[in-house]
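fyi for ur records
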Amino acid sequence: MAMEDFEAGRLGVKLGDVMTISAVGRTLDAEIVAIYSQKGLQTRFWFEGILSDGALDGMISRQVGAAFLDDEAAIEAQKGIGAVAPNVISVRTANLLETARGILGKAASGLAVVAAVSLGASLLVLISVLAAGRTRQIYDATVLHAVGARLGLIRRGLRLEYLLLAAVASVFSILLGAAIALPLLRYRLKLPSEDLLWLGVLVAFAVSGVSLALGARYLLHRLHFNPVTLLRGGQ
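which gave:
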C-alpha cells in the first residue's frame, strides 16, 4: 500500500508498517511500501491511500473509470451506457468544468471589484499625503526662486524628489504586498505566484507614478506665478 504523507503523519505510520483495512465487513493486511504527497488544489480524486492492483478484488462493490472523448462521442457514450446498464452513473467532466468556471468567474469579478476599490482608496490616500506637504513645498520653492535660484534648477530638484518618492513608495508597497500575498498563495492556496508578482510590481509603480506625477505637475505649474504674490498670500 502507498499512503498519502499527511494521513501517514496523523496515523504515525512509516515505511514497513502493516495496516489492517476493513472493507464491506472483511479485513485486509497491507504493508506500507511508499509514502507520497499531493498538491493542495487539484481537479482529480484525492487519494488517501493506494493499494496494489487486485488487492480489493472480490471486496469492492463499485468501480470508477474515466474515458477521454470529444463532446459528441461523450454524449453518444452516455446514451449507450444508459441503455445497456441503467445502474451505471456517467458524468461529463465538461459540464462540471463549465459550472466550476462560472462560479470562479463570479468570484473573480467580485475580487476585481474589491481590488479596484482598494486601489482607488490607496491612490486617494497617497494623493492626500502629498497634498498635506504641498503648501510647504510651494513656499520653499517660491522663496528659492525669489532669492535668485534658477527656475530650471528648482524644477529638476522637484522632479528628482518626486521620482525618488515614487521609487520608495513603490518598493515599500511591493515588499509589503509580497510579504502578505506570496506566503498565502504558495503555502495555503498552492497556486503559482510568479505572474502575479510582476503584476503587483506594475500596479505599484503605476499608482505611485501617476499620483506623484500629478502632484509634481501641479507644483511646477504654481511656480509660473509671481513669487511676490505667492509670498504675500502666505502660500
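Helices lie at 5-11, 71-84, 93-132, 134-146, 151-188, 194-222, 227-232. thats all i got for now
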